[in-house]
């Protein structure tokens, strides 16, 4: 299915969450039944509006969403480093990204690093990476709920982050996240990148995803 062009996608219209008006590409998930809108509308764009800023309340909402994620035994292994465009933390995170990610992520309103804490006073934290993943998905879905977009990246140097931010050994940078406002794909300039931005999204069919009687037997025959 070709990408849909539509009126700006709006969710929360509270004054704190006002967003820049853009002609957005929607890449709504194709599902057999309706889903929670934040899940259906989430995708990972690279065309960010370089003029849009993230407000303090918006950043607070993203971090609150992540903070309230479940975790093994409530061990809460997730931590975040966060910078908004123009500040020191943003610059340090941008510098740590791989060149391919830097090429588009510099337009984001905020850049974050998700850090997993691998040990506490009782010893190693089980399922720490799972906990950081749950927290980060909460953050990303909250961004969509606010009318923003988010794009996670493994392409960055954890060592650069460790050194720039003075992380202790038991704090492991695991994911970078760009958050901002969706812009028209044309901001990417390069035709190949624009085509990638507009390409349809794909997933495994449900028949290959959820099994019933045995591995490979579709739960929905
Ligand atoms: C752990 C993880 C690492 C990723 N790393 C990158 C990355 O370094 N650069 C990038 O452009 N996208 C990255 N992505 C985005 C994925 O490519 C994207 O989520 C996937 O293609 C599915 O597309 P969708 O998010 O639009 O549904 C990453 C996503 C995850 C969850």
UniProtKB/TrEMBL annotation:
Residue runs in coiled coils: none
Record has Oxidoreductase as a keyword: yes
InterPro entries reported for this sequence: Nitroreductase (IPR029479), Nitroreductase-like (IPR000415)
A Pfam family that the UniProt record links to this protein: Nitroreductase
Sample GO molecular function, one term: oxidoreductase activity
Domain Nitroreductase positions: 39-82, 97-180
Keywords: Oxidoreductase
Record bears the keyword Oxidoreductase: yes
PANTHER family documented for this protein: NAD(P)H NITROREDUCTASE YDGI-RELATED, NADH DEHYDROGENASE_NAD(P)H NITROREDUCTASE XCC3605-RELATED
UniProt record similarity statement: Belongs to the nitroreductase family.
Protein name: Nitroreductase
């Amino acid at each position: 299915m070709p990408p849909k062009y539509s009126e700006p996608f709006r969710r929360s219209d509270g004054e704190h969450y006002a967003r820049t008006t853009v002609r957005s590409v929607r890449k709504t998930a194709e599902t057999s039944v309706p889903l929670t809108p934040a899940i259906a509308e989430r995708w990972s764009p690279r065309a960010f509006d370089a003029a849009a800023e993230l407000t303090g309340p918006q950043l607070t909402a993203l971090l609150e969403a992540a903070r309230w994620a479940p975790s093994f035994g409530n061990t809460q292994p997730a931590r975040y480093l966060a910078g908004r465009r123009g500040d020191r933390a943003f610059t340090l995170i941008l510098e740590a990204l791989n060149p391919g990610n830097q090429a588009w992520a510099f337009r984001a309103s905020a850049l974050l690093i998700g850090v997993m804490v691998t040990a506490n006073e009782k010893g190693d934290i089980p399922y720490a990476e799972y906990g950081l993943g749950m927290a980060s998905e909460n953050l990303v879905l909250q961004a969509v709920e606010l009318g923003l977009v988010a794009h996670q990246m493994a392409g960055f140097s954890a060592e650069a982050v460790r050194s720039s931010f003075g992380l202790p050994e038991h704090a492991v940078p695991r994911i970078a996240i760009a958050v901002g406002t969706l812009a028209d794909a044309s901001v990417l300039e390069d035709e190949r990148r624009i085509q990638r931005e507009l390409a349809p999204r794909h997933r495994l069919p449900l028949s290959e995803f959820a099994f019933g009687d045995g591995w490979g037997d579709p739960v929905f025959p």
